[in-house]
Amino acid sequence: MKLECLRVIENHQLALDTYEMRLQGEVLPILSQPGQFIHLKIGQVSEFMLRRPVSIADVDREEKSITIIYKVVGHGTNWLSTRIIGDEIDGLGPLGNGFSLQQHKGESILLVGGGVGVPPLYYAAKELSKHNHVTAVLGFQTSEAIFYESEFSQIAKTWITTDDGSYGYSGLVTELIASLGSFTTYYACGPNGMLKSVQSQLSDIKGYLSLEERMGCGIGACLACVCQTRCNKGYIKICKDGPVVNADEVIL
Amino acid sequence: MKLECLRVIENHQLALDTYEMRLQGEVLPILSQPGQFIHLKIGQVSEFMLRRPVSIADVDREEKSITIIYKVVGHGTNWLSTRIIGDEIDGLGPLGNGFSLQQHKGESILLVGGGVGVPPLYYAAKELSKHNHVTAVLGFQTSEAIFYESEFSQIAKTWITTDDGSYGYSGLVTELIASLGSFTTYYACGPNGMLKSVQSQLSDIKGYLSLEERMGCGIGACLACVCQTRCNKGYIKICKDGPVVNADEVIL
Amino acid sequence: MNLSVNIAGLPLKNPIMPASGCFGFGKEFSKFYDLNELGAIMIKAATQEARLGNPTPRVAETSSGMLNAIGLQNPGVDQIIKEDLPFLDNYQTPIIANIAGRTKEEYVKVASQLDQQPVIKALELNISCPNVKEGGVQFGTDPTLAFELTNAVKAVTTKPLFVKLSPNVTNIADIALAVEQAGADGLSMINTLTGMKLDLSGKKPLLANQTGGLSGPAIKPIAIRMIYEVRQQTQLPIIGMGGVTSAEDVLEFLLAGANAVAVGTANFQDPYICQNIILQLPDTLSKYGYSSLKEVMFDSCVNPSISL
Amino acid sequence: MNLSVNIAGLPLKNPIMPASGCFGFGKEFSKFYDLNELGAIMIKAATQEARLGNPTPRVAETSSGMLNAIGLQNPGVDQIIKEDLPFLDNYQTPIIANIAGRTKEEYVKVASQLDQQPVIKALELNISCPNVKEGGVQFGTDPTLAFELTNAVKAVTTKPLFVKLSPNVTNIADIALAVEQAGADGLSMINTLTGMKLDLSGKKPLLANQTGGLSGPAIKPIAIRMIYEVRQQTQLPIIGMGGVTSAEDVLEFLLAGANAVAVGTANFQDPYICQNIILQLPDTLSKYGYSSLKEVMFDSCVNPSISL
Ligand SMILES: Cc1cc2nc3c(=O)[nH]c(=O)nc-3n(C[C@H](O)[C@H](O)[C@H](O)COP(=O)(O)OP(=O)(O)OC[C@H]3O[C@@H](n4cnc5c(N)ncnc54)[C@H](O)[C@@H]3O)c2cc1C
Ligand SMILES: Cc1cc2nc3c(=O)[nH]c(=O)nc-3n(C[C@H](O)[C@H](O)[C@H](O)COP(=O)(O)OP(=O)(O)OC[C@H]3O[C@@H](n4cnc5c(N)ncnc54)[C@H](O)[C@@H]3O)c2cc1C
Ligand SMILES: Cc1cc2nc3c(=O)[nH]c(=O)nc-3n(C[C@H](O)[C@H](O)[C@H](O)COP(=O)(O)O)c2cc1C
Ligand SMILES: Cc1cc2nc3c(=O)[nH]c(=O)nc-3n(C[C@H](O)[C@H](O)[C@H](O)COP(=O)(O)O)c2cc1C
Ligand code: FES
Ligand code: FES
Predict the structure, then answer these.
(1) What are the chain C neighbours of D255 within 8 Å (beta carbons)?
(2) Which residues contact B125 (CB under 8 A, 6 or more apart)?
(3) What's the pLDDT at D305?
(4) How many whole angstroms from D43 Cα to the centroid of ligand 1?
(5) What is the CATH number of the domain that holds A132?
(6) At how many degrees (to 10) do helices D143-154 and D172-181 cross?
(7) Cα separation of B236 and D60, whole Å?
(8) Ligand 5 centroid vs D138 CA: distance in angstroms?
(9) B212, C93, C263, D31: which has the fewest Cβ within 10 Å?
(10) What's the CATH code of the domain at B219?
(11) Over 70: is that where the pLDDT of C159 sits?
C-alpha cells in the first residue's frame, strides 16, 4: 500500500464511454496483484473530497505500469478521461485483497464479467491461464460497449454476450453459463444483480466475487464500504477484506 | 461587456511573484479601454465560486489580445500562473469605467502606480502619451518586484521607487512626487494607503483613482464592492461606477 | 417540453428564477439575455428607508461557496418603486419582491406599499437575513415571532406571500408550520447559513461584519435535506434554492419537494446560468425519463401528492 | 518550534489529531506513518453493545464535502477494549475515546468502562451524531438534556471530558454553556451538519439512511463561526474541526479560538494529511509572524486571555 504520483502514459477510448489508461509509477505497479484496486485522487483542489476506486486490469512490471479500464459515469471518471499523456494522478494502492490464484493448478475455471466488472478479470485470466483451463463469459450492454474481446480470446475460451443482442450471445450471462458445462471454480465481477444470480446459480462450486461499494477511505478505517456476511459474522469491509470475497460468505 | 472564452497565448514570470499573460479573443480585446478590468473564472469546477478581477494592462487590436499582469497572492492567481499556452480561460469583460483619456490634450499628467496597481496605468500611459507629457512614478517593494520599467520609459518620464531602497528612489512614492514639480492631472492605482496619501497630497489638481474591492458579480448587481462617496451621495459600486473614480468624490 | 408550473396561484412559464440579492433589480443581467426567458425574478430586499448596508469587505470566497454580508443595502421602498420597478415593467416575467425590516411595523409598511405595485406578482418575506443586527433572522428562528410577522404581513397583501426560511435553526419544519398556520402561501428555502472566514494576516474576520451568509454548492446538501424534511410536513409550494449550478441540481431540488427553483451565487460565476439551465432543463428531464415538469413533481421523492 | 499545548490538563506535543470516525482505531493509518507523531488520536465512537450501523450506501460526495451515515457501527466497548486498545497502547500518543449511546445509562456505562483504561487519556461525549435514530443528536440539541447527560458522565470519570457539539442548532453557545455548567472540561466542535443528496436515476436519497452528516471544507466557514461565537462565552478548551485540509486551516481554527484541531474527512483524500500538517505547521506559523503555538493563542481573534 503506497501513495504515489502516477504518470499517465496512455489514455484512449476503448469502447462506448469506456477508456483504457496506463499509469506509470515506481512502486505501485510492482506490488499490484490481480483483483486489487487503486484509489485515485480526482482534481487538484478539494472540490472532490473522495478518491475513486478503480480495478487494476493489467500490470507491466518491466514498464512499471498498471492498466485501468474505466467507464465515464460522473465527474470523477470524466476528469480521468480528459487526462493527457504526461499528466500526473495521485494514486493510493494497491488496495484490498485480490484473487488467490496460486492455489489453482489444472483446474477448469470460469470467469464471469459484466461491463466494467470485466477489467479485473483480465489480469486474473492472464495469471490463471498459465496453469488452468480458463473460460471467460463477458457481458456488455451493446456491441459498441465491448472491449478486450481479442485480449481474452488469446488466453481463454471467450464468450461475449450483449443485453440487446447486437453481438454474440443475446441475453444475460447467467443464461449462457448454464449451457457451458461444468467448472471447478469461478470468479465473477460486475453489477450486483449479475453477481447475485451467479452466486445462486453456481452455489455448488467454489466461487469468488469482486464487490463494489461507495467508499470513503479505501483502507478499512471509515466503515463506509461494508457488506453483510452469512453466519452472523457481521460486516466485512469491501476495501480491506475484499473486494474479492468467497461467494458463499456474503449476503448481497 | 461579453463573456468569452479566451486563449492563453503567453504566460511568463515578469518579476518576483508577478506574471504577464496575453489572452486572445474575438470581442473582448476589441472593446477594452484603459482602466477597465476583466473578471476571470478560476478552475473548471465550482470549487472557486468567485471570478477574479484583473486590470487590462494593454491591448493589441490586431492580434486581438489583451495583456494582464498579476501577482500570485492566493489560489486563483496561482491557478492563473500555471496556465500554459493554448489553455482557455473564461473571461467576463471589459468591465467598469476606465480612464476618460480623450479629454486630455497638451497636459502635464502624472501617473502614480504601486505594485500591481501599475498594470492599468501602462495602457493609459500609451494612450495619454500621444497628446500629453506623461510622468510615471512607479513604486515597488523591492528591486526584484519591478516590471515594465523600460516599457514606461519609452513613453513617459519614468521614476521607480522601492520601499527597501534596493533600486531607484528609496521610499514612498508620495515623497518622490513632492519633488517633481506640478501637474495638471493625475491618475493613481495601487494599495489603499498609497491612494489615500496621494488623494490628500494632490487635492488641488484633478485626479483619478483606480480602486480595488472584493467583488461578487463584477457587473453591479450584488453590491459587494461599494465605496463611500462625499456629500451624502451614498455608495458607488466599484465594479460598475469604477474602478476609476474622481479622486475628490470618494472617501477611502 | 412544457416547463410551466403554478406556484401559489402564480403561473410561471418555467420553474427557474434568480434568487434575491444575486440579480439586483435585473438591469445588469438584461444586458446578457432577455429577462422574459426567466420563470420569475426575485429582486433585492427592500426596506422602508434607504440602507447603506455593512462596511466592506462584504464578500469572501470559501470552498465551493462564498460568504456575503451585504447587510440589506437598498435605496428604500419608495425609491425602488420609482427607479427600479418601471424597468422591470418592460417584461412579462413575474416579479417577486423580497421584503425586510427591523420591526414588524416596517415589514408591514414595505409589504403594503409593494402590494400596490402591479408589476409585483408575489411577495417574499425575508425573515432569514443573517447579516443585520436587528430584524431579519431573529424573526426566522422563533416560530412565534415568525407566525406573528407572517400574519401581520398577510393582512396587508392580496398577493401570494412566500416566507423565506433560515437554515440556522434546530428544527426548520417548526418554522415552516408556524408560517403556514399564519397564512403563508408558500415557502422559500433556504437562505444562507451563518459562517465566518478569518484573515490570517490581519488576524481578524475577513468580512467587516465579522460573520456572513454562506451560499453556493457547499450548502446544497443542507438545502436538499431541509426541503425534503419540510415537504413531509406541508403541502405549501416551495421555491427551493441553495447551491444550484445546473439543470441536474434543479431536478434534485424538484425531487426533494420543491416546486420551483431559484439560482443565487451561480449568477456571479456565470451571468448566463439561469438562461442556460432553462435551455438544458428539457434534455435533463428527458434523460431521467420525464416528459414534463409536472411528471417530475408527481415523482417527488417524498410526497407524490403535491397539488400542482 | 514548540508546538506543544495543554488542553484540559492533557499535554499534547502538537495540536493536531485525527477526528473520531475518520481514523478507525489507528491501525490502518499506522501503515503510513508513525502514530507517535500525532498530538492525539480521537478513536471511533464506542457504544455498549456491538452495532451494525446503517445499510449501504453510507457515503456520498458533495461539492467540497461528503455525506456519511455510518450509523455508529462499532464492535461494542468490551470488544474495543479487548481488540483495539492494546494496539494503541504501543504508542505514547494520548487517545481520546468517543462515546455514544441510546440512553443516558448507556453513555454512563460506556464512559465508566473506558475511564478504567489507562491508554485512554480523555473522553469525548458524542451528543451530535446525526445518523442514528435514538440518542446522539437529540442530546445535542436540547440544553437540558445535554446538561444532564454531561453531568451523569462526569460523575463516573476522572479523565478530562470533552463534549462534542452539534452544529444543527439555532444557538450553539446555549449548548456549550449548558455542558460547561454540567462540568465538561472542554468542547469538541463541530460534528457534521445534517444533509442529503438524491440519486436522480433512482429517484430517492442516495444514502440508504436518507440523510447523512456533511463534513469537509464545505462546512469550514460554519465551524469557524461557531467556534468564534462559543469562544466569546466560555474559556473552556476547544478542539476545533470541520473541513481542515492544511496548516493554514489549522491557524484559522486557532485564531478563531480553538486550542487544538482535529482533521476528519481530509484523511480520506490524503492518508498522510495529519503528518503533513504537523510538518508544515511551524513554517506556516512563522509565515504569519508567530514563533510558537502559544503566541497564536494569545493572538486569538476573540479572546486574548485564554489560559494555556
Ligand atoms: C473496488 C472497485 C473497483 C472498481 N473498478 C472499476 C473499474 O475497473 N472500472 C470502472 O469503470 N469502474 C470501477 N469501479 C466503479 C468506479 O469506482 C465508479 O464508477 C467511479 O467511482 C465513479 O466516479 P464518478 O466520479 O465518475 O461518478 P460520480 O457518480 O460523480 O461519483 C460520486 C461518488 O460516488 C462514488 N461512486 C459512484 N459510482 C460508484 C460505484 N459503482 N462504485 C463505487 N463508488 C461509486 C464515486 O467514487 C464518488 O465518490 C470500481 C468500484 C469499486 C468499489
Ligand atoms: C478592479 C480590480 C483590478 C485588479 N487588477 C489587478 C491586476 O492587474 N493585477 C493584480 O495582480 N491584481 C489585481 N487586482 C487584485 C486581484 O483581483 C487579486 O489579487 C486576486 O483576486 C486575488 O485572487 P487569489 O485567488 O489569488 O487570492 P485569494 O486571497 O485566494 O482570493 C480569495 C478571494 O478574495 C478576492 N481578493 C483577494 N485579494 C483581492 C484584492 N486585492 N482585490 C479584490 N479582490 C481580492 C479574490 O478575488 C477572491 O474572491 C485587481 C482587483 C480589482 C478589484
Ligand atoms: C450577495 C448575496 C446577496 C443576497 N441578498 C439577499 C437578500 O437581499 N434577500 C434574501 O432574501 N436573500 C439574499 N441572499 C440569499 C440568496 O437569495 C439565497 O437564498 C442564497 O444565496 C442561497 O442560494 P445560492 O446558494 O444559490 O446563492 C443573498 C445572497 C447573496 C450571495
Ligand atoms: C465517515 C465519518 C465518520 C464519522 N464518525 C464519527 C463518530 O463516530 N463520532 C463522532 O463524534 N464524529 C464522527 N464523525 C465526525 C467527525 O469526527 C468530524 O466531527 C466531522 O467530520 C467534521 O470534520 P471534517 O470536516 O474534518 O471531517 C465522522 C465523520 C465522518 C466523515
Ligand atoms: S472505504 Fe473506508 S472502510 Fe472501506
Ligand atoms: S461586484 Fe457585484 S456590485 Fe460590484
Answers:
(1) 198, 200, 203
(2) B111, B134, B136, B152, B155, B156
(3) 42
(4) 28
(5) 3.40.50.80
(6) 30
(7) 44
(8) 27
(9) D31
(10) 2.10.240.10
(11) yes
Give me the mean pLDDT over the C235-257 stretch.
97
Are both B177 and B218 inside the same structural domain? no
C211 to chain D, any CB pair closer than 8 A? The answer is yes
For residues D109 and D129, give the distance between their C-alpha atoms in angstroms, rounded to a whole number: 18
Ligand 4 atom closest to Cα of residue D190: 19
* CA angle at D125 for the pair D124 and D126, rounded to the nearest 5°: 110
Query: Which pLDDT score, from 0 to 100, does residue D58 have?
Result: 98
Residue A28 domain flag: yes
pLDDT digits (tens, 9 = 90+) for C162-215: 999 999 999 999 999 999 999 999 999 999 999 999 999 999 999 999 999 999
Q: Is the pLDDT of residue A135 over 50?
A: yes
Q: Do B203 and B217 share a domain, yes or no?
A: no
The total of structural domains in chain A comes to: 3
**What is the Cα gyration radius of chain D?**
18
Closest ligand to Cα C73: 3
Find residue A97's DSSP bridge partners.
Answer: A243
Does one domain contain both A183 and A219? no
- Catalytic residue numbers of D read 129
Q: How far is D182 from chain A (nearest CA, A)?
A: 32
* pLDDT tens profile D56-100: 999 999 999 999 999 999 999 999 999 999 999 999 999 999 999
B95, B126, B156 — which closes off a domain? B95
- Number of Cβ within a 10 Å radius of residue D299: 14
| pLDDT tens profile B85-112 | 999 999 999 999 988 888 888 999 999 9
Give tens-digit pLDDT for B212-230.
Answer: 999 999 999 999 999 999 8
User: Is the domain of B7 the same as that of B82?
Assistant: yes
pLDDT value for C177: 97
Mutate to test the interface with A, among C61, C63, C220, C246 (most CBs of A within 10 A): C63
Residue B101 lies in a domain: no
Q: Which ligand is nearest to the CA of C61?
A: 2
D196 CB within 8 Å of a chain C CB: yes
Whether A152 is in a domain gets the answer yes
Closest CA to A116 of A83, A138, A97, A99: A138
Nearest chain A CA: its distance from D289 CA (Å): 27
pLDDT above 90 (res C62)? yes
Residue B116 forms part of a structural domain: yes
| Positive or negative torsion for Cα B176, B179, B180, B184 | positive
What range defines the domain where residue B143 resides? 108-210
**Minimal Cα–Cα distance from A250 to chain D, Å?**
14
Please tell me the class of the D5-49+72-204+214-302 domain.
Answer: alpha beta
Q: How far is the CA of D206 from the centre of ligand 5 (A)?
A: 17
Ligand 3 atom closest to Cα of residue C128: 11
In this structure, are A83 and A117 located in the same domain?
no
SS3 B30: helix
pLDDT, tens digit (0-9, with 9 covering 90-100), for C29-52? 999 999 999 999 999 999 999 999
Domain boundary among B95, B125, B141: B95
Burial of B9 (0-12, 13-18, 19+ CB in 10 A): middle
A140 & A198 share domain = yes
**Chain D positions in Cβ-Cβ contact with residue C225 (cut-off 8 Å):** 194-196, 211
